[in-house]
Design goal:
Blueprint lengths: L19 E6 L2 E10 L2 H6 L11 E15 L8 E6 L5 E8 L7 E14 L2 H5 L6 E3 L14
Parallel strand pairs: 2-3
Antiparallel strand pairs: 1-2, 1-7, 3-6, 4-5, 4-6
Length: about 150
């Protein structure tokens, strides 16, 4: 495991799958199993009312086009890190340890195509930083780390 016992190591020659994301950062590569939230209803519900989230899992919110997004933690029972990504899969912002039940808006900025939510504190432990890249079919062949590369 390249980065942590909490997340899987991304391997060479991996085929992109909708239920998996790979992240490349200064400390190497890591992989998460993800649930997709790619409809208005699934994005609105997100990870609400979940008592736990496996450490190597997350939820990937995917939008139809890059846009300004804000999140909140209403009815969310666990702390989360939110990783905001542009249309190429580049990390533009990371909000760490969003507090359960907090209804304060968390601004993700403009030009966001996707947001990855993972367990709170994990982004820092894995060394994820702004400028890191995520590989997933949602970013297409023009992604910063395209599928098949």
């Amino acid at each position: 495991m390249a980065l942590s016992a909490a997340a899987g190591s991304a391997g060479a020659g991996t085929v992109c799958r909708p239920d998996t994301v790979e992240i490349r950062g200064p400390r190497g590569e890591t992989r998460f199993s993800v649930e997709l939230a790619d409809t208005p209803d699934s994005r609105a519900y997100g990870l609400m009312n979940r008592a736990s989230l496996p450490k190597s899992s997350g939820m990937l919110f995917v939008y139809e086009y890059p846009q300004h997004v804000s999140f909140w933690m209403r009815n969310t029972l666990i702390p989360l890190d939110m990783i905001f990504l542009d249309a190429r899969g580049v990390i533009t912002r990371i909000h760490e340890n969003a507090r359960p039940h907090d209804e304060t808006a968390i601004d993700g900025g403009s030009g966001v195509l996707a947001v990855l939510e993972i367990n709170g504190g994990l982004a820092r432990r894995l060394g994820l930083v702004q400028g890191g890249v995520l590989r997933h079919p949602a970013f297409g062949p023009g992604g910063a780390w395209p599928c098949g590369s």
